[in-house]
């Protein structure tokens, strides 16, 4: 079993509140939400960050973005708006080294990172 937290969620070894699952991607609620809606979108395949994913598997990066849009639709965020954040590396504040998009909304979340 992988020691990557999000690979373990993909494998079902750690429970998660799933929002959308496709063949290659998974969307689940953040365990410590920073907004009324806070969903993480990941590729099921392990890639460390968005730069690695985009270079190694650009089509899969596109699938992650398509799932981001599907989450926004499912959560009713398309009209009110939302933010998509890829924290990347140490200075970017990334804590889990399996690429994930944060989809946050449901309240005004501001134009800048907190
Ligand atoms: P990062 O700082 O790497 O961009 O974000 C990691 C996110 O993963 C954090 O917002 C954190 O709350 C979330 N997280 C950490 N552990 C778990 C977990 O076990 N389950 C879920 N659903 N989210 C988690
Ligand atoms: Zn992983």
From TrEMBL:
It comes from the Bacteria. Residues 5-114 form the HIT domain. A motif (Histidine triad motif) lies at residues 98-102. InterPro entries: Histidine_triad_HIT (IPR001310), HIT-like (IPR011146), HIT-like_sf (IPR036265). Gene3D superfamilies: HIT-like. This is Histidine triad nucleotide-binding protein. It comes from Pilimelia columellifera subsp. columellifera.
């Amino acid at each position: 079993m992988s020691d990557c937290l999000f690979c373990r969620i993909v494998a079902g070894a750690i429970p998660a509140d799933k929002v959308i699952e496709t063949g290659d991607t998974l969307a689940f609620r953040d365990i410590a939400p920073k907004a009324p809606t806070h969903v993480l979108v990941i590729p099921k395949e392990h890639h460390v960050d968005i730069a690695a994913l985009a270079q190694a598997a650009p089509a899969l990066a596109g699938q992650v973005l398509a799932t981001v849009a599907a989450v926004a639709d499912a959560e009713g965020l398309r009209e009110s708006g939302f933010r998509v954040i890829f924290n990347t590396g140490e200075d970017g504040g990334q804590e889990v080294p399996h690429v994930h998009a944060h989809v946050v909304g449901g309240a005004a979340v501001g134009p800048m990172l907190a």
